[in-house]
Design goal:
Strand order of the largest sheet: 1-2-3-5-4
Largest sheet: 5 strands, antiparallel
Bound molecules: adenosine monophosphate, zinc ion
Distance between the termini: 35 Å
Number of strands: 5
Number of helices: 2
Helix content: 10-25%
Low-confidence stretches: none
Order of helices and strands: HEEEHEE
Mean pLDDT: 98
Structural class: alpha+beta
Length: 105
Amino acid sequence: MDCIFCRIVEKKAQAKILYEDERSIAFEDIAPQAPVHVLIIPRRHISTALEIREEDKDLIGHLFLIASKIASEKGIAERGFRLVLNCNREAGQTVFHLHLHLLGG
Ligand code: AMP
Ligand code: ZN
């Protein structure tokens, strides 16, 4: 499997990383759709929202906590931001490694 986000996790592909811990990593989107456009992903490869399992519930909640933390750091928390998760092609998913878009500014 050749996954660009797994390659970023493994540091085999470059990205502007803003946050990382043992379960997740956040980096700037390469083609920003807003002044702040950050992607928050699990380190482990999960293809789509449909592959989220019962035991992943804490991990998914963790991604949302990281997103709001970054929103605060970026100064957009009070003004407002969007969290977007696209699932499969008709929703516009192009990278099949689960990711939460943080959009704001
Ligand atoms: P989606 O359409 O939800 O699958 O979003 C995929 C996002 O990943 C898009 O906003 C792309 O601009 C972004 N993207 C693709 N490749 C990279 C990369 N190498 N580094 C950072 N962001 C990327
Ligand atoms: Zn992956």
